[in-house]
Design goal:
- The complex is a heterodimer.
- Chain A is mostly helical.
- Chain A contains seven helices and no strands.
- The longest helix of chain A is centred in the last third of the chain and has 17 residues.
- About 5% of the residues of chain A have low confidence.
- Chain B is mainly beta.
- Chain B has one domain: SH3 type barrels (Roll), CATH 2.30.30.50.
- Chain B is about 10% helix and about 35% strand.
- In chain B, strands 4-3-2-1-5 form a five-stranded antiparallel β-sheet.
- Chain B is globular.
- Classes of the chains: A mainly alpha, B mainly beta.
- Chains A and B meet through helix 3 of A and helix 1 of B.
């Protein structure tokens, strides 16, 4: 390979790079700003998503593997991948893999989420359409 | 295929549409094997619920940043080490 193809460019559609494969690109500086190296508080939601994944990938049951979770996350459309949080990516990936593995159906997930959304609205909380997709 | 410590290896430049653990920035680049990690089920199969067998050897490969990034401005003694599965490597 020629030396000038070393990747210092922002990712471009059709460059064969997965949405997650950002190493060496300027995508972080351009699209996301500098990396914040500080620790942050962990929310209950994040702990729950983490725990759920650990149970699902545990060798005793291995409903799916960490590799499948990575694949499910990498399959997210780029605008979604770029805009949702780390654990939201896990939550979406876990949902999609549970459907893929036949543990739950999409209809069951959607019905449950609609139920939760209406309960939240009844309490006066707003629910974004994105949260339901 | 097994690689010795100190052996120079090239990372396969091929495009792979499915899940794999070989980052774009090392594809087609030459590095040096610096450690053996043992054998592991292949994530390229596990990612799609296959058994990931046969197991593949995972090795740590050391690169010089300037071989990877044309505009690298870090310290000259900086090194980058990446764990790479054997089927992405060939002897130089």
């Amino acid at each position: 390979m020629a030396s000038d193809d070393r990747p210092s460019n922002p990712r471009a559609p059709g460059d064969g790079r997965g949405v997650h494969d950002l190493g060496g690109t300027t995508a972080f500086g351009v699209a996301f700003g500098p990396i914040d190296p500080h620790d942050h508080a962990t929310s209950l939601y994040e702990k729950r998503v983490d725990a759920m994944l650990m149970l699902l990938i545990h060798p005793d049951r291995e409903i799916f593997t960490i590799d499948a979770l990575r694949r499910a996350v990498e399959d997210m459309p780029q605008p979604v991948y770029d805009s949702v949080s780390y654990y939201d990516k896990w939550a979406v990936g876990i949902r999609n893999l549970l459907i893929e593995r036949g543990i739950v159906t999409r209809a069951e997930v959607e019905a449950r989420m609609a139920m939760i959304a209406s309960a939240l609205r009844a309490k006066g909380q707003s629910v974004s359409a994105e949260a339901l997709s | 295929m097994s690689y010795s410590i100190g052996e120079r290896v090239m990372v396969d430049p091929r495009h792979h549409g499915g899940h794999h653990r070989t980052p774009r920035y090392i594809k087609g680049r030459v590095g040096e094997v610096v450690a053996h990690h043992g054998t592991y089920r292949n994530p390229e199969g596990l990612a799609y619920h296959a058994d990931g067998l046969p197991k593949k050897e995972l090795v740590r490969v050391r690169f010089h940043p300037l071989d990877l990034f044309a505009d690298y401005r870090g310290a000259p003694h900086d090194l980058i080490e990446v764990d790479v599965f054997e089927h992405w490597l060939s002897k130089v």
